[in-house]
Amino acid sequence: MLQAKKCLHFFSRKVISRNYQVTIVGGASEIGQSIALLLRNQRPITSLVIHDNVTHTPGIVLDLSHIPTNSAIKGYVGSDSLDSALQHSDVVITTGAIQSPGLSEKARLHFNVEFIKSFATRVSKVSPIPFIGIATEPINVLVPMATEVIRNHGDYDPKKIFGITSTDLFTAQAMYASINNINPEDCNVPVIGGHSNETVIPLLSQSKPACNLNQKSIEEFTAKFRSQEDLVINSKKGWSPTLSIAYGVSKFVQGILNALDGRSNQIHAYIENNDFGTSYFAGKVFVDENGAGEMERYSNLSDFECHLLERTIEQLRKDVSKGKKMLELA
Question: Is 236 exposed, middle or buried, given 0-12, 13-18 or 19+ CB atoms closer than 10 A?
């Protein structure tokens, strides 16, 4: 009987979830609001924090507060309040400027670079450092830059810094299901490389159910997959995709919270990783309460995929170097 009580106590202790604070930096932006809406109803999140520099941030917080969930919601406005917003956070998400009519690519890049520099400097002072999910574009460039800032200024832990690339995985899954007329929940298409048209690679040779496409169809699928963001931008008359990205971010957060609860699992992310010929790489990553672990590997890639991988590695090296050089020029 005593042994049975011990087992029951152990089981009860293992299934109880902790309570978590998630902070969205840039939470009043279009994509930030979509992320906040999806996270508002995630049960383990007992405190959702919205930070932004725009004056209408309190209105966003008030709007979200009308959703009846058993969690607190807080808002902070202005750069002076960022330190307070980051305190006690278990997971921090960054958004940033998206492509939109009237905003040049140069202006967007400048805004996002300065945004990540400032954020990384401030979050580096938080101890222990929270799990950091960067959804700010261009991810290939800004994640290495953020890592260098944190490494130079504070409590650096490479296992806790992620570029959120979940949307690539879900896009491939949805496209593959559509052309094969199957339920998306029943298929899987691994995606590796980076997070740009030139660096993202869908591994159709590893897809499940097994790929039944000829070489021409595989190349057409890959080209279409790599151009999906441009297709959305054109269809939205110049605006970047936000809803699918917000969904990917919400799944990333869910995966991290599961890991913090002791349920080791996989997420899709761009992380510091030297195993693939470049210092950063994206793919399915095993994650636990300590952060990122091993990235899933694949064998027997097709000649076409190997060719894409060689070109991707070359481009990723340039992207990583670009991110680090931006700090030197600052």
Answer: middle
Nearest to 248 by CA among 158, 141, 145, 133: 133
**pTM here?**
0.93
The answer to whether the CB of 260 falls within 8 A of the CB of 90 is yes
pLDDT at 155: 78
On the question of pLDDT at 159 being above 90, the answer is yes
Helices 215-226 and 228-235: angle between axes, nearest 10 degrees: 50
Residues in the chain: 330
Tokens 């470049």, residue? 278
Question: Chain-centre distance of CA 87, in angstroms?
Answer: 21
Q: Where are the alpha helices (DSSP H) in the chain?
A: 2-15, 30-39, 57-65, 82-86, 105-123, 139-153, 166-180, 215-226, 228-235, 243-260, 303-329
Q: What is the pLDDT of residues 200-239, one digit of tens each?
A: 999 999 999 988 889 999 999 999 999 999 999 999 999 9
Catalytic residues: 195
CA distance 134 to 114: 14
CB 296 within 8 A of CB 286: yes
What was the pLDDT predicted at 7? Answer: 44
